[in-house]
Specification:
- This protein has three helices and no strands.
């Protein structure tokens, strides 16, 4: 898994696609919020954000 992350970072640097990093980070955060919100007692508090 760590090799995949290193390869992804090197790809961004070589291809000048660094602007994609915030998009990927935002998608990961939203995905984590959805997973936490659907399977925990915090769901009522997370749903108020949307």
């Amino acid at each position: 898994m760590l090799d995949f992350i290193k390869d992804l970072i090197n790809y961004f640097k070589e291809r000048k696609k660094v602007w994609l990093a915030p998009v990927i980070i935002l998608l990961l955060i939203i995905g984590a919020i959805i997973v936490i919100g659907s399977s925990s007692a915090l769901a009522p508090f997370i749903y108020t954000l949307f």
